[in-house]
From TrEMBL:
The gene is mraZ. Pfam families: MraZ. This is Transcriptional regulator MraZ. Belongs to the MraZ family. The keyword Transport does not apply. GO terms for cellular component: cytoplasm; nucleoid. The keyword Transcription applies. InterPro entries: MraZ, MraZ_C, MraZ_dom, MraZ_N, MraZ_sf, SpoVT-AbrB_dom, SpoVT-AbrB_sf. It is found in: Cytoplasm, Nucleoid. It comes from Pikeienuella piscinae.
Length: 157
């Protein structure tokens, strides 16, 4: 059974940086062999945090190991992915402590906006997300034809 991160939620962040992971996202993480959450900065430099489970991290690692380990591209990507990823266990109530540098990157203080993006999810400052949402929707509408419906439906693309 495929499990994906979907839906969205805004949750409070306390003074110590603790925030509850939305229940649907916790279910996806708990469906994995090791329910560890990975968080890292968004690779394209956006003001958001990317979250995912161990299986997605393993896919990233497999992709990296196919590269020449002595190339500058490998070094840059390995540093950005493995070097900047935080492995965080969820406490018994489903909370984590957002690392201070990630909170600063995303400008997260009193609230965090979570949005599922299938294999990953994003954590935003709610105001920043709201300001970018119209532009993202415009890009989505302009590119809806790029979805591979034939492949998604089990047919040939």
């Amino acid at each position: 059974m495929l499990k994906f991160f979907s839906s969205s939620a805004t949750n409070k962040v306390d003074g110590k940086g603790r925030v509850s992971i939305p229940a649907p996202f916790r279910k996806v993480l708990q469906s994995e062999d090791s329910p560890i959450l990975f968080l890292m900065p968004e690779l394209l430099g956006g003001p958001t945090i990317i979250g995912f489970g161990q299986s997605h991290f393993e896919n990233l690692a497999r992709s990296l190991t196919k590269m020449n380990p002595f190339s500058p591209e490998y070094r840059a990507l390995a540093n950005a992915v493995a070097g900047k990823a935080h492995q965080l266990p969820l406490d018994e109530t489903g909370r984590i402590v957002l690392p201070k540098e990630l909170r600063a990157l995303a400008g997260i203080e009193g609230e965090a906006y979570f949005i599922g993006t299938l294999n990953t999810f994003q954590i935003w400052n709610p105001d920043t997300y709201a300001a970018d949402e119209a532009a993202m929707l415009e890009i989505a509408r302009a590119n809806v034809d790029k979805l591979d419906w034939a492949g998604a439906m089990g047919g040939e693309s």
